[in-house]
Amino acid sequence: MIALWPRRRIAPIVIAAVVLSVMVFWSLIPFYFLVVVPLRPPGSGAMGLELPKEIDFGHFRSVLSGLNSLWRYLWNSCVASGGATALVVAIAFPAAYAVSRFKSRASKRVYFSFFLLRTFPPIALVIPYYLVFSRLRLLDTIASLIIVYIPIGLPLAVWLLKGFFDMVPSTVEEAAKIDGASTIQIFVHILFPVMKIGVAITGAFVFLMCYIDYIYCVTLTERVAATFSMYIAGFIGDHWIWVEDMVAAALVGLIPLILLFSFLQKYIKKGIVFGAM
Amino acid sequence: MRRRTTIQRGTVFSLSLFPSFGFTLVFIAFPIIYAIYLSLRQYSLLMGTDYFIGLKNYARIFTDAAFLASFFRTILYVVVVNSVNFLIAFPMALLVSQSGARLRSVLSVIFIMPLLLMPVVAATFWRLIMYGPPYAEFNRIFGLSTEFYLLASSKTAIWAIMLIDIWGWTPWVFLPILGGLEGLPGEVIEAAKLEGASLRTLVWRIILPMLKPVVVVTLGIKATGTFLIFDYIWAATRGGPGGTTHSLSTYIYTQAFQSLDYGYGSALAIVMLLCAVVLSTALFQYMRKE
What we know:
The complex is a heterodimer. Chain A is mainly alpha-helical. Helix content of chain A is 71%, strand content 0%. Chain A has 12 helices and no strands. In chain A, helix 3 crosses helix 9, helix 6 (142-167) runs antiparallel to helix 9 and helix 9 packs antiparallel against helix 12 (243-270). Chain A is globular and about 75 Å long. Chain B has a domain at 62-213 and 228-241: MetI-like (MetI-like fold, Orthogonal Bundle). Chain B has helices spanning 2-39, 56-61, 65-98, 101-112, 119-131, 137-141, 157-182, 186-194, 199-226, 231-236, 248-257, 262-289, and strands at residues 41-44, 49-52. In chain B, helix 3 runs antiparallel to helix 4 and helix 7 (157-182) crosses helix 9.
């Protein structure tokens, strides 16, 4: 973007630098504690901004191994979110195609209803889900999580994929149709390869939205299928001596999200994925 | 011949939508209908009752002061969080877009870092390390007493939660605005500059009006999401102290899963659902106009 103010004058540069530093401080300060707190030796009682005098990995050891390690929870989160993502993208792909390619009134209505579904309060769904699942003995299972993540993911996936279909000119399919390809063949051999990156982005967002869920897992899971959110929230109410373990776990839990966001960042900015929030 | 192709097109249209319609029917429509059914019953595990009472659950809502308080608190929460998000994200994006290439990429990474902490982790971390004694790092930085637990006082708790939310979700507003700024036509700004427009005029009269669609859609979509707020509040305070931090979602949650009054909880949830539908319909109309 072109310069809005003259670069040779001191005053605007100083003001900009000060404002930027405050914003950088604001964004990063919790991360400072996130890294430093679990590195301090257990029982050192050190607080505040001072750097640890000696580094100790005891807190990491206790969340990475032993009875109360984070692996099972992280695994549950990934399986539930991954399962839901695969399912949701497979269902949403043809639906987004229909909404993008057909310009009828029915198509517009369908599009609008998917938009509405995105803003449905989870609390309205979780009460009936809980009662039905408890009757079916599905509480505290990964399967129940995958089911309830469908309403989170489906409207979002249709919305995003429709945007990607809009960018693929329909001439591609028409040419294939003239050559005698069936609809299924067009989907599998023509559309899916062109849409690969769009599907990947959509999948990443759906995964993210399921992964950060709290309301469903806090209601429907307890022990066996408890997710990473449950693991972290479980530190609350324990003796405060375990607080540093929670921070160590939170730091390890960043890894999947770092991978996701390093892939997504540039697409969020391009505005393709406006609806993703 | 022509007729046959239209039938075929129609078939492809319905077949493509069939799977998602099936899933929506079973996993969204059915639960909602079941919730409406529950909302018409006196279904409470605590009292051991389960019988039809018509609209009495809905009538009870109007006399439920705690629910009305949560409703207005949720509105306040949405307004404050989204306005502050914009007030931070817009200058952030403006400054980043004005920086040189290298500084810009470093700053973008720094400013989206809060996204890495998912809501429950952010809320738990802020609760235990930033606010909670004995750490209370937030208090140390701002020179408050470390004995003063912001989340434990009914005067400050909701504002402290809003601060966590603002910290965590500003990147979601920052990124689209930065994208919007970088997409603005340079000639218009250049022309205004040649005519001697000051920075303030440029921002207020040129940049903000051109950016308006991006801002409204971003904040609009975010507002419909913030309206459902549950995770930050539940992980930070569970609605306490004394119910002063309940949002609609957390209040309904306690009615259903702590008071075990599934009938009344469902009635509240249906009312909230209607509010959400009205909000998002209004937003959709606006987005179509733009």
